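Fold it.
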Amino acid sequence: MSYGIDLTGKVALVTGASQGIGAQMARTFHSAGATIMLNHPDMGTTRTDADGVAAGLNAARPGSAHVIAADVSQADAVQAMMQTVRQKCGSLDFLINNAAIIRDRTIAKMSLDEWKAVLDVDLNGVFHCCKFALEIMRDGGAIVNMGSIAALQGFFGQANYAAAKGGVLALTRVLSHEGAKRNIRANAIAPGVISTAMADTIPETVRADMLKNVPLKRFGETREVAEVALFLCSPLASYVTGQTIEVNGGWRG
């Protein structure tokens, strides 16, 4: 028996795919043969970055990557994005809900806008994408929602982010029940600190304190998260649903 993962003929949509973990998700699923739909919010450099990722994938396999702009916090935009996926690819096999923002501040100092902005993208955005993806997803598909160690540890200054990611983990468990009748599996990944541009904004002293909690004595790489997502969407995980997989180097408080 071969354990190679071959996703030839499958379609994967990755939200927040312009950089970091999302861009690596796109590359990893593409390397397994999937056609990739790269979502970005069309803010700042995200369009240029997503176009660059897609260009690299299409250079390796022409016509295998497409870029779609949509703010996942907006239900109408997500519904339109899913219809674009249907028009271009017929249907969808895998949804990777990766798009997220942070607006760190203590509860006492956090503005209502900062609270709402994070919940709108990090939790409502996942709901929007799951809801409308189910309308076009083939039976037997898979959804991977990106949680965070923040939902489990409750880091100082991250009430909005931790609450949103905690909601994602709960939503995933419900989705695993509701999708089971169509054999659509839903799982979450809760990464620890991963080497990305977002992680680079963490002050060095805080990073050093965090590293003390990691038995493997290093922060994770985007590849290590993307490969877990690939496993969860593959036939190797055919009996895995409703789970949160922690990818954190062993961090336990």
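The chain has one domain: 11-247.
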